[in-house]
Design brief:
With 546 residues, the protein is mostly helical. Helices cover 78% and strands 0% of the residues. InterPro entries: MetI-like (IPR000515), MetI-like_sf (IPR035906), PhnE/PtxC (IPR005769).
């Protein structure tokens, strides 16, 4: 007679995933979609291990040593670094001034319709117009805005400030709205049901619980603005970008290395500032809108912004002059009518497929690597090993995102040749640093009670992550991942400068030849792709928030 089999433990039954069929179906569909993307992006990692590729990369990296340390050059780099930082700060300040009111208007969580009250056609239409305006602003690459403003006001930081302001207004408005809508709706709903206004619901309901994420993301966008300011230098915006372009043309690798080291220091400084601000803002002080903790970081940023506006040579009068407006109209008129010939549209379709594949595969790789690094970067400090691992991981994330996508692409083009594959690798490398930083901040901002309760009951660390940490963090992580995918579509336009494939390479080619009608068609294709990804992001956030 066989002994009866032991009963199944209640613990194993409790932690069986009830939605495993749906998750398995999702993974199968994702794999089915990923394969054609890999083919379209020409993803062939074995090319990187070819002896010729390894020799080319080693020769390129060897030119960086020794770094340039001449006093005159360091003084020039310091001055260029300030112009870069000031351009980024001034542009971000203008973007925030425009994005905050647009966020208040466009966020559904703050409207009366969120509590079941009818919403008029006019407010609904205004909210939709705001969403489309934000999509348009962030869909047009900074290079296109910069080329427009360089034509109007000439070379210098004015064009860079205006280009960053317009593009980053769209970015900030989108993410600010998603952060507010990902927060617990109970406080805002209570205020709205009791007759509170949209502004009161924001100040006393949504802002207190969302402030750490908003501050962290704003400081992160300042990092990105610094990198965008560098890119503006390649089209005449001054600063480190202009100096780097000159050094790269002269094959002065030591000078390039010194300027990249400055980037790393700037990003590390921003990371320290972000963590300090989140520590100050996380806690009971959030409930007091007038406390010094709430005013410290805005005052510091305002001081930096004022210094930036004062020291930069900004030619506002030239921008607002009748002659400048006439040049702007002439520049914009050159884009119309867009080229819609069948042959060119077929090329646009191929470029759009390459851009989608580059951005999607690059973002997927970055999400996988970034999540692993974020888990290490968000480990609680205390023991020596976790503390060292945390510091090393943070440094790696800073390093990855400090190097602009354009420099990553130049490196990968040397290793793998022209085409979408080096663009995919460049987006993956840079986005890993970005996603890892954002995911780590999200994990650190989570309430610790659910995870602590499971750990106190002897649940394994993996189960704690799957059933306590991940469900809380997933909506924000998905929002960040989809946003970075959208951002990478636009970033691919910058990579076209070095021949990294996709719509970006087409845009750079036609702009270089002043073929504005063809460039207009490329920009419209980018707008359509970004709008589609935005709609997908909005739908997924709605499903995850239920």
């Amino acid at each position: 007679m066989h002994a009866p089999s032991p009963p199944r433990s209640s613990a194993s039954a409790d932690f069986r995933d009830p939605a495993w069929r749906g998750r398995l179906t999702f993974l199968v569909l994702a794999a089915a979609l990923t394969w054609p993307m890999l083919v379209a992006s020409e993803f062939r990692p074995w090319q990187l291990f070819d002896p010729q590729a390894l020799a080319a990369v080693s020769g390129f990296l060897a030119s960086f040593v020794p770094p340039a340390t001449a006093p005159d050059f360091l003084l020039l780099v310091a001055e260029a670094a300030w112009i870069t930082v000031a351009t980024a700060t001034a542009g971000l300040a203008l973007a925030m001034l425009a994005a905050i009111p647009l966020t208040l208007v466009g966020t559904a969580r703050l409207s009366q319709s969120a509590v079941g009250r009818p919403m008029g056609r006019v407010p609904s239409a205004i909210r939709q117009l705001v969403r489309w305006l934000l999509i348009f602003l962030r869909s047009v690459p900074e290079l296109v805005w910069a080329l427009l403003f360089v034509r109007v006001v000439g070379l210098g930081p004015t064009a860079g400030v205006l280009a960053i302001a317009l593009t980053y207004c769209g970015m900030l408005g989108k993410v600010y709205a998603e952060v507010l809508e990902s927060a617990d709706p109970a406080p805002t709903h209570a205020i709205l049901r009791n007759g509170g206004s949209r502004l009161q619901a924001f100040l006393y309901g949504a802002l207190p619980q969302s402030a750490p994420e908003l501050v962290s993301y704003t400081v992160f966008r300042w990092e990105c603005a610094v990198r965008s300011s560098v890119i503006m230098g390649f089209v005449g915006g001054g600063g480190l970008g202009q100096q780097m372009e000159m050094s790269m043309k002269m094959l002065a690798g030591g000078e390039v290395f010194t300027m990249l080291a400055v980037f790393v220091l700037l990003v590390a400084m921003a990371d320290v500032v972000s963590r300090a601000l989140r520590g100050r803002l996380d806690g009971p002080a959030l409930a007091l809108p007038g406390t010094a903790a709430r005013l410290a970081w805005p005052a510091g940023f305002a001081g930096l912004a004022i210094a930036s506006f004062v020291t930069l040579d900004l030619r506002w009068r030239d921008f607002l002059s009748p002659d400048a407006l006439a040049k702007m109209r002439e520049f914009v008129a050159g884009f119309f009518p867009p080229d819609v010939s069948p042959g060119f549209l077929a090329r646009i379709g191929q470029g759009a497929l390459e851009t989608l594949a580059m951005s999607a595969i690059g973002t997927l790789i970055a999400c996988a690597l970034g999540l692993a690094l974020a888990l290490a970067a968000s480990l609680p400090a205390g023991r020596d090993a976790p503390g060292l691992l945390r510091a090393a991981t943070r440094f790696l994330l800073n390093l990855l995102r400090s190097i602009p996508e354009l420099v990553w692409a130049a490196l990968w083009v040397i290793a793998a040749g022209l085409g979408p594959f080096p663009g995919t690798l460049a987006l993956a490398a840079h986005t890993t640093g970005v996603i890892g930083r954002l995911f780590a901040d999200t994990l650190e901002n989570l309430p610790p009670a659910p995870a602590r309760a499971l750990r106190d009951n002897g649940v394994a660390p993996l189960a704690v992550f799957l059933y306590a940490t991940l469900p809380q963090a997933l909506p924000q992580m998905v929002s960040y991942a989809l946003y970075r995918w959208e951002n990478n579509i636009r970033a691919a336009a910058v990579l076209g400068v070095v021949g990294a494939g996709g719509l970006g390479q087409m845009l750079h080619f036609h702009l270089s030849l002043f073929q504005m009608e063809q460039a207009a068609t490329v920009v419209i294709a980018m707008l359509a792709i970004v709008a589609a990804v935005d709609a997908l992001s909005y739908a997924l956030r709605g499903r995850l928030g239920r």
